[in-house]
Design goal:
This protein is an alpha+beta fold. It has one domain (5-153). Helices cover 30% and strands 29% of the residues. The structure holds zinc ion (ZN). Zinc ion is lined by residues 93, 97, 118. Zinc ion binds next to helix 2.
Length: 154
């Protein structure tokens, strides 16, 4: 077994910078999801890890939600009550964008001109309806981007 090689793309580093800035500006950060992909054959073991992060911070003067790479930042300032449901819509919306980032990597910027990455309409009381009109990467499409990939050769 040779030394394992680690592939950490530039996009992963830039995403970490965004995550670090969110932390510096006071976000509370949680691990939203993590995808683990293990493939092995007679000669190679490959492990891909792709975490996604949810950051809550008071962004009311700037945006309700945004994302970059595998990091989404959502506005925590919405008051409790009916608007609490809006937070679910914002998180579902941004989480769908993270799936699009995973599938397309930096091509997501180009894809916005060809694919319906944004919802046709935001239903503020229905996260599923909001997300249903956003482009959903087909499962047959292998992701362009994995946060970190470790490969070991025999
Ligand atoms: Zn959006």
């Amino acid at each position: 077994m040779q030394n394992p090689s680690i592939h950490f793309p530039l996009l992963s580093g830039l995403s970490l910078v965004v995550l670090g800035l969110a932390i510096i500006f006071g976000a509370s950060v949680g691990l939203y999801d993590v995808s683990v992909d293990v493939r092995a054959d007679a000669d190679t073991l490959l492990v891909g890890l792709h975490p996604t992060f949810l950051c809550w911070m008071d962004t009311r003067d700037l945006f309700r939600g945004m994302c970059y790479g595998n990091v989404m930042i959502c506005d925590e300032s919405l008051p409790a009550g009916p608007q609490e449901r809006h937070k679910e819509v914002i998180v579902a919306h941004e989480a769908q964008h993270l799936k699009q980032w995973r599938a397309l990597g930096p091509l997501v910027w180009l894809a916005q001109y060809f694919l319906p990455l944004e919802p046709e309409y935001v239903y503020w009381d229905d996260p599923e309806a909001t997300v249903s009109t956003m482009w959903d990467p087909p499962s047959s499409l292998p992701p362009v981007w994995t946060f970190v990939t470790i490969t070991a050769e025999r």
